Amino acid sequence: xxxxxxxxxxxxxxxxxxxxxxxxxxxxxxxxxxxxxxxxxxxxxxxxxxxxxxxxxxxxxxxxxxxxxxxxxxxxxxxxxxxxxxxxxxxxxxxxxxxxxxxxxxxxxxxxxxxxxxxxxxxxxxxxxxxxxxxxxxxxxxxxxxxxxxxxxxxxxxxxxxxxxxxxxxxxxxxxxxxxxxxxxxxxxxxxxxxxxxxxxxxxxxxxxxxxxxxxxxxxxxxxxxxxxxxxxxxxxxxxxxxxxxxxxxxxxxxxxxxxxxxxxxxxxxxxxxxxxxxxxxxxxxxxxxxxxxxxxxxxxxxxxxxxxxxxxxxxxxxxxxxxxxxxxxxxxxxxxxxxxxxxxxxxxxxxxxxxxxxxx
Length: 361
Ligand code: ADP
Fold this sequence. Notes:
By secondary structure, the protein is an alpha/beta fold. The protein is built from 14 helices and 11 strands. Adenosine-5'-diphosphate (ADP) binds next to helix 1, helix 3 and helix 9.
């Protein structure tokens, strides 16, 4: 899902609000989650994939076994936060198998008829990839159960006493699902995926390697320390690393004869306000709202979303996983709570008798 970007305040801002505002002036509209560059830099084969060693190892075994048996691969589910490589893995699999590939996005499959053509077009051993599979409507989900299990679809014709169901056989295909919310998948759908693979955040050396490789693809010279700097600020996410690399390349072309040195990378990243741990404007805004509006929490994600004018889904998918991972946020049954580490990072001093773990003030 594309991350909703908020630039210079929300449309329904209170005109009487006297709270300090970010300085006005030219603002670089930079989107670290922008997906527009994904296809240019996407690895094409399993050997091009950096990191995710456990996932790669399991995939190698699954692909090897399927090829040896000359059978279609079992259905595969990838889960993990956005930008970590789920679509990349899904596109690499058919290339490794030498089979056909179809791609669909669950929000576009609103009725069984929308998915029917994908199922009937699937050739033997081909791959059908459904992105954001947790967003399939129940009627479509039920329609694909027999397709996944018995390779047939049940089509209802007519209505009332004339109604009848015909069974249409399908070729044996492989369904690949990707989700950022495995918890939202129903148990029957999850159980139909025999292989479930979790993609996790990347460590800095792997991200630096991705930046190095991609700068070669973009024919841009980059210092190893600059790759490490970009990696450090990419929040463990290759998509962000790629987008920061694109920005640093633009900056270097415009201001530094096209070479990304350590200093050029730092200046470029400071300009778009991505700080040294990778927090960007939206992350800081989330934390500041939690601190200023909700006294540090606990606060529900819906309420925070309303204050930010940002869908709760976007916060849960794109902002919170990283804040939780770096220990800036706690998720409790009562709501979200900002941590002392986040306050220290933002340079805010909590009253000594009211530690940040509870309500702040
Ligand atoms: P997701 O589907 O999980 O949102 P993508 O597969 O679209 O993420 O990945 C976004 C981009 O990040 C890809 O285009 C690719 O360039 C890069 N990327 C992701 N995973 C890797 C990896 N393991 N090695 C190299 N590049 C990667």
